Amino acid sequence: MRLGFSARLAILFAVLVALTALLTGGFASASTDRRIKDNVDQFLRERALDIAEGRRRPQRPRPDDRNRGNDQDNDLLVGDSDSVDGDSVERAVEADAVVQVLDSKGVVIARTGIALPVSEADISMASDRAPVLLRTETINGEQFRMATMTFAAGDGAVQVAQSLESTNLVLGEIRSQVIFASVALSALAGLIGWAVASGTTRPLRRLTRSIEEVRETQDLTRPVALDRTDELGRLSTSFDELLQTLAASRDQQQQLVQDAAHELRTPLTSVRANIDFLQRAPNLDEETRTITLTSIRSELGELSDLLGEVVELATESDDPATFERIDLVTAAEAALAQFEIRSARPVERDMSSSFVMGNHAALTRAIGNLIGNADKYTPDAAAPIRVQVEGGRVMVADRGPGIPAEDRANVFERFWRADEARSASGSGLGLAIVKKAVDDHRGTVFVHERLGGGAEIGFQLPTS
Question: I want to staple 197 with a disulfide (CB 3.0 to 4.6 A). Which of 9, 291, 321, 409 is the partner?
Answer without folding.
Answer: 9
